[in-house]
């Protein structure tokens, strides 16, 4: 794993991919410039939608060269941690709202050999993450209510990102933004301190495994818009 830095990373969510062709979709987005592959696991209970679980992660792992970033929207979490470790997840992110023992859950994720992430719903103050910042590698700030792709960005979350960035200080903790990221919203969160941008519909829109060039154009458009909002970080990235 490379050393920590805050250059802008784009993490396409395969929730917007062709569900009949996940392996080739993962290869296509990486070839088109994706930094991480974001995998949205939903249980139809914590969120009102069902997607896929550790078996899908196992199946796509050989098709991902870089980071598999798994976002659990499930409750409970703990009984599935070992299965996601075995499936090859690099980052495993659990929601603070998923149960009463998030500290234990994050410890268990680290104990299973993965990088722990903490996700926060829009209704949760980011200050709730404060006691956990020394045990995690990422905070995922939801900028939609989790459950579905293609929703509208919740603009009031930008101030939460700004407060979270101040809380994190110089800790090596990424701020990931999830939901409604498009070239128009990416600069708002980047300027507020976010460095990892999840995007589903805005990456996959207009492309396919047979014609993946639009994926690359979409990734570059989001990245350019975000980097333009943080010129100093852009210079560092090219240094
Ligand atoms: C929402 C998921 C997101 C979603 C993002 O519950 O966690 O990762 O796929 O999709 P877009 O970018 O379309 O809002
Ligand atoms: Zn997600």
Protein described:
The chain is an alpha/beta fold and 239 residues long. It has a single domain (9-229), classed as TIM Barrel, CATH 3.20.20.70. The protein has helices spanning 22-31, 54-60, 81-86, 102-111, 157-168, 186-192, 201-204, 213-229, 231-238, and strands spanning 9-12, 36-42, 67-73, 91-95, 115-120, 138-142, 174-178, 196-199. Helix 4 links the parallel strand 4 and strand 5. The two termini are 19 Å apart. It binds D-xylitol-5-phosphate and zinc ion. Residues 13, 15-16, 38, 40, 71, 144, 146-147, 149-151, 178-181, 198-202 line the site of D-xylitol-5-phosphate.
Q: What integer is the average pLDDT?
A: 96
Highest-level CATH class: Alpha Beta
Helix fraction?
Answer: 25-40%
The value of Rg in angstroms is: 16 Å
> What is the CATH T-level topology?
TIM Barrel
- How far the N terminus sits from the C terminus, by CA atoms, comes to 19 Å
Overall SS class: alpha/beta
Give the name of the CATH superfamily. Answer: Aldolase class I
- What is the tally of helical segments? 9
Query: Based on the structure given, which CATH architecture is correct?
Result: Alpha-Beta Barrel
User: Which descriptor suits the 3D outline?
Assistant: globular
Total strand count, please?
A: 8
Small molecules (ligands, ions, cofactors) in the structure: D-xylitol-5-phosphate, zinc ion
Domain count, please report it: 1
